[in-house]
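Structure tokens please, single chain.
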Amino acid sequence: MKESKQQIQLVTADPSALGLFGLAIVTLAASSQKLGWTDGTALLLPWAVFLGGAAQLFAAVQDAKHNNTFGSTAFGAFGLFWLGVGLTWLIQAGALGEALHSAADPHQLGLAFAGYLIFSLFMTLGASETHKVLFIIFVLIDILFIGLTLTTFGIAPEFSHRLAGIAELGIALVSFYGSAAAVLNPHFGYVFLPIGKPFGWFKPKQVK
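Here you go.
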């Protein structure tokens, strides 16, 4: 019985491929609005809900089955983030009623962004001991939340908004690469797309 459970665990697919793809799509679409390439958030909503939200939450559940606390927490937190962003856009558009829209205080959103910045910073430390592609993604996420927080509090809004857009585009591009590596490396059976070894800054080295 133990052997069969172990075999099932070994053949379970890596959920980071789908999770990173979901992150790539939603940040690519959202960055286009921040950088002025597209207008509005109406057609960003489906991608925020299904790719940013559902895809990453699915990856979080699957990572939990792998006993991967880091991956499950990262995908779960950012999946819920994008669902929250989608609901925020609906409130800002007045889709949930004028009373709710008029009562909105943007500083509350700024505090939520600041909280996610704190979360992202300590997750960046964890990513440094995973692989370099993931570390780069988290560094860019840190920059994104710095930009979002400053923008929402009205601090250098033009600069910080553009900074957030550039960082978000970078997240999309590197996440596409990470997703491709997670699919193609095991599919081909060798390192087709290198992701870089952990930095080894925090984990103690094994004594041989």
